[in-house]
């Protein structure tokens, strides 16, 4: 087990939003199924948040190989608490901090979340009518709620993974053909 002590009240407020970690976890469990995907705006880190996230991610990355990690969290207003989190959650925390350190906005979407066609289009960076065509042709699974389509985030990511794989195959084939034709790629 790795042991990390967080003494920064800023980091505590950023991660826990003045709730104890147990209360936050319980609240997230209760609301995760109720709120629609992407209902919350992405968190855009301030410049000071980005700097703090960079420092924190560097410290935390030293402990990434542990199967479980113990975190001790404290602030001025609350007593210190130590929790054990799984490695997958620890990696996610480091990923979040890394993105924040780069100034990237962050949002979390549960894998079981249902998306509208517009939300799916935004994530794929395509038009909504294109996503509608994908659902109509059964290339992208969906369910209908009245006249509206709902797409599971997991299905959308599976579709994206498949088209990314196909895109890589086509690009590899183009490189081979260009090399055979001696077009300048070596």
Topology, pairings included?
Blueprint: E1 2-6, H1 9-16, H2 21-32, H3 47-61, E2 68-73, E3 81-86, H4 87-101, E4 114-115, H5 117-124, H6 128-136, E5 143-145, E6 148-152, H7 153-180
Helix pairs in contact: 3-4, 5-6
Estimate the strand proportion.
5-15%
Number of helix segments? 7
Largest sheet: 3 strands, mixed
What characteristic shape results from the CA principal axes? extended
Q: In brief, what are we looking at here?
A:
The chain is an alpha+beta fold and 186 residues long. Helix content is 51%, strand content 15%.
Written description of the protein model:
The chain is of the alpha+beta class. It is built from seven helices and six strands. Strands 1-2-3 form a three-stranded mixed beta sheet. It has a three-stranded antiparallel beta sheet with strand order 4-6-5. Strand 2 (68-73) and strand 3 (81-86) form a beta hairpin. The longest helix has 28 residues, at 153-180. The model is unreliable at 1-25 and 27-38 (pLDDT under 50).
List keywords for this structure.
disordered N terminus; 7 helices; alpha+beta; about 50% helix; 2 domains; extended; Multidrug-efflux Transporter Regulator, Chain: A, Domain 2; single chain; three-stranded mixed β-sheet
């Amino acid at each position: 087990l790795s042991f990390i002590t967080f003494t920064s009240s800023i980091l505590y407020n950023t991660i826990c939003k003045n709730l104890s970690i147990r209360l936050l976890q319980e609240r997230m469990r209760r609301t995760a199924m109720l709120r629609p995907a992407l209902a919350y705006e992405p968190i855009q880190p301030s410049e000071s948040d980005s700097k703090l996230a960079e420092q924190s991610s560097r410290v935390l990355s030293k402990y990434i190989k542990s199967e479980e990690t113990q975190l001790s969290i404290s602030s001025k207003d609350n007593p210190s608490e130590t929790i054990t989190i799984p490695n997958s959650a620890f990696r996610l925390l480091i990923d979040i901090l890394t993105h924040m350190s780069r100034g990237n906005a962050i949002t979390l979407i549960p894998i079981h979340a249902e998306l509208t066609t517009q939300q799916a289009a935004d994530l794929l960076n395509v038009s909504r009518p294109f996503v509608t065509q994908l659902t109509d042709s059964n290339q992208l699974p969906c369910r209908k709620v009245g006249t509206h389509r709902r797409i599971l985030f997991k299905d959308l990511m599976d579709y994206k993974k498949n088209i990314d794989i196909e895109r890589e195959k086509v690009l590899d084939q183009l490189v081979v053909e260009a090399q055979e034709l001696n077009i300048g790629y070596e």
